[in-house]
Amino acid sequence: MNKLATALTVSGRKLPYVITDNPPRGGMKYTYFSPDKKYVIQFYNNPSDADLSIRSRLEAIIGKYNPTKSHKQGGAVGVDEKLAGYFSKRYCWPVDIVVQPEFGIVSPCYPSNFFFNQNSSRFLNLDGKDKKSNWFTSSNRRFLDKSELGDLRMWIQMSVLLARSVRRLHQAGLAHSDLSNNNVLIDPRTGNCIVIDIDSLVVPGIYPPEVAGTRGYIAPEVLATMELPRRDPRRVIPGSKTDLHALAVLIYEYLFFRNPLSGPKIFSSVSAEEDDFLGFGEKALFIEHPTDRSNRPRDLFPTVDDYGEILKNLFHRAFVEGLHNPELRPSALEWERGLTRTRDRLMMCQNPDCVYGWFIPKDFTNPVCPFCKTNGDRRSVIKFDFYTEVKGHPGQWRKYSEMTAAKDTPLFLWHIRPNVYADEKTDSDIMAYTAFTQNKWYLINNKIEGLISPKGSDVPFGTAFQMEDGDIFKTAQTGGIIIEVRL
Ligand SMILES: [Zn+2]
Predict the structure, then answer these.
(1) DSSP states along 351-378
(2) I need a surface site. Which of 32, 192, 220, 398 has the fewest CB within 10 A?
């Protein structure tokens, strides 16, 4: 029978929670919910695991490293109310430490969009289960209702947010240490994700947690050195570089629904364990390796070639150059920027049954969806090329970005400023947007200062300017840019 109990926190709060017979249990902790299901109280399976280093780590995570709490409220330096609100949606960050009846942590409950409901599957009863990535990135997909699956635009959006969450941790000197399909919940319908199990973060100056990682996400160098004694200097323990391997694996899985290292190659005929140990460790080999095709599944489709040059390069750096050389892995910031630029290039597929729904056109004059081979509707989009003046070479322009725009597409601050990038601070400022009416394309200036039309006149805020093929808009301020239009 369920019983109400009270937890006393280190901050002096008394929080009620409901004791159930079979609480959800993970590798380290088990979970009880508050009566209103707004927060959870978690206790350790083995209370002796909750040693001093866990306590000091948790205090740092909840306090000075906390991006979900403003600096004024005791959170991380540089975080204001708005940023704290933003990052509260990106992580399920612990909020307090329980001291009685025993040591534990308090965390918010996941938002409701990260739980399946009764319409999520016709085959399985998933009502109330959390949306672990694995449901979407494996053959389990086939059990889910189409409405849960999202499309390529949402998968890229999810990946941008995950890269941003990891980048924010790394920027503060933290590392997650156990990123995996279990510790990231995703909602492909809305392009959202949330990072959970924050309590095993690697915190500067505090003894690292005893986690190795999860099969399929663990970095090869960690697996390969795992059997060495804990204090052996050759043993690699999880940190930001191993997070970057797991991040790349997760992004690859969101876009391809398969693991980048699981191929047909047999690494050991001694045992399945030995085969796994080598295939994800010392001998790990990207299934899309450009020259060594020994781990490549037959009829592999789609491949990194179908996702545009930017992502192809990032995946190659992660799984070819950087697989056994952690220093060469792309940073979370590079993923965040590369994914954002790829998102800008997406074009909608005309085929209503296309699983991907969107694609990155290889040839803008004759776009074809690589996934279902349907021709793109060239008249439904225009292209913007963004140029900035080369420093010290007046009159010379360098393209820094491009964009495929449909009607009602917003231009954000990071499009029109070459030195500004899409992040938690610039995501919502609409500077201009496109409109398409009576077969004519328009650019509406929302708040680009000093925007000059191709004919040389000012385009004041709130006015619409009709665009023709080859038009060039400029901005007047120093460090200005030009925007070239392709209809
Ligand atoms: Zn298609």
Answers:
(1) -TT-SS-EE--SSTTS-B-TTT-PBP-G
(2) 398
Domain boundary among 109, 138, 163: 109
Residues 215 and 253 in one domain: yes
- The type of residue at 38 is K
Residues having C-beta closer than 5 Å to ion ligand 1:
349, 351, 354, 369, 371-372, 374
Ligand 1 geometric centre to CA of 151 (Å) = 10
Report helix, strand or coil for 22: coil
Q: Residue 394's pLDDT band (boundaries 50, 70, 90)? A: confident
Task: List pLDDT tens digits, range 89-148.
Answer: 999 999 999 999 999 999 999 888 999 999 999 999 999 899 999 899 988 899 999 999
Is there a single domain that holds both residue 448 and residue 425?
yes
Residue 345 Cα to ligand 1 middle (Å): 15
Question: How far is ligand 1, taken at its centre, from the CA of residue 348, in Å?
Answer: 8
Q: What is the mean pLDDT of residues 170-176?
A: 95
pLDDT, tens digit (0-9, with 9 covering 90-100), for 226-245 = 989 888 999 998 999 999 99
For residue 189, how far is its CA from the centre of ligand 1 (angstroms)? Answer: 18
Tokens representing 285 are 């080999």
| 257 Cα: distance to centroid of ligand 1 (angstroms) | 16
Q: In angstroms, what is the span from residue 80 Cα to ligand 1's centroid?
A: 42
Tokens 């708040």 identify what position? 447
Residues 413 and 466 in one domain: yes
Which residue range(s) make up the domain with 88? 3-109
The label of the residue with tokens 């009880």 reads: 32
**Claim to verify: residue 296 and residue 415 sit in the same structural domain:** no
Neighbours of 317 (CB within 10 A): 19
CA of 337 to the centre of ligand 1 (A): 25
The answer on 202 and 316 residing in a single domain is yes
Q: Are residues 350 and 340 in the same domain?
A: no
400 and 479 share one domain:
yes
pLDDT of 37 > 70? The answer is yes
* CA 371 to ligand 1 centroid distance, Å: 5
- Across the chain, mean pLDDT equals 92
3-state DSSP percent of the chain in helix, strand and coil, to 5:
30, 20, 50
* Gap from CA of 308 to ligand 1 centroid (Å): 15
Q: Is the pLDDT of residue 476 over 80?
A: no
Whether 360 and 395 map to the same domain: the answer is: no
Mean pLDDT of 140-169: 96
> Which of 357, 375, 393 finishes a domain?
375
Q: Give me ligand 1 centre to Cα 358, in Å.
A: 6
**Count of domains observed in the chain:** 4
The predicted pLDDT at position 392 comes to 86
Phi, psi of 441 (to 5 degrees): -100, 140
**Pairing relationship of beta strands 464-467 and 451-452 according to DSSP bridges:** unpaired
pLDDT, one tens digit per residue, over 82-101 is 999 999 999 999 999 999 99
Q: Dihedral of the CA atoms 392, 397, 401, 403 (nearest 10)?
A: 160
